[in-house]
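Objective 1b. Sequence-to-structure analysis of deoxyribose-phosphate aldolase.
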Amino acid sequence: MSAKLLADESESSLKKFLATLPPVDQVGAHARADMLATRSIKTSSKNWAIDTAISMIDLTTLEGADTPGKVQALCAKAVRPDPMDPTVPHVGAVCVYNDMVGIARTQLDSIGGSEIPVAAVSTAFPSGRASFAVKAQDTKDALDAGASEIDMVIDRGAFLAGRLGDVYEEIKKIKEICGKRAHLKVIFETGELVTLDNVRKASYLAMLAGADFIKTSTGKVAPAATPPVVLVMLEAVRDYYALTGTQIGVKPAGGIRTTKDAIKQLVLVNETAGPEWLNPQMFRIGASALLNDLLLQRMKMRDGHYAGSSYVTLD
């Protein structure tokens, strides 16, 4: 799609195009995000919102202490978030480190979760600091193990130093490795990009290079998925769709822990990008603890009372 917007794929063309983007109104972005956060929704809409948020979760474990048993338990929860209630939808994906991809894929397939994709964090996650050869092999290993979604991190150092061509080329090459085997989610680590203008530029840079999704953060650096950041990214995918006809997904990750947080995200999506993004194919939430709160709130909506603390599993 970059050919529609760029004279060529040189760094000078990239910088020339990105210079045409209007600057972000920082005050306005914060004010609009704050205003949308005050929106209330009716009970019937809240039921829908809870189930929709569950279906959008990339249920995640990214710890050095992850074990096969922990990943298998996470997969069981992904398929049947509430074992006592089969009407609860399954999650959007299971997200793990490379070495756990095969375990997750095998477990999901064995328990009726073959339609749930495994997402692998890749390209020297979370720092992004490795040679491209290492990043490419990292991606290939994940695909060979059964990943159908790759969450890659950009080289923030290169971006902040102005080496936008290097960032663009890495994303493009990783997308070529993914081919049709996997969707590519590009992680910016927005807490390190500092400004909303940089978030907007990174969003366009990734989309031009072939990203299927743009993702806020690794979850390892704060601040992460703040409402103004997500707002700017949603505006970017909306405007990019208007320019190119290509619809790109958005994945906020980091700091979204409660049902109230999740519903605020859905309001942001609906009011900024539009209802076309209100589905797991176009919007995901990277989270682990969030699912438990959604399940507890769902039970409260259904039965009129909260379950005990033992009702949900500890992740």
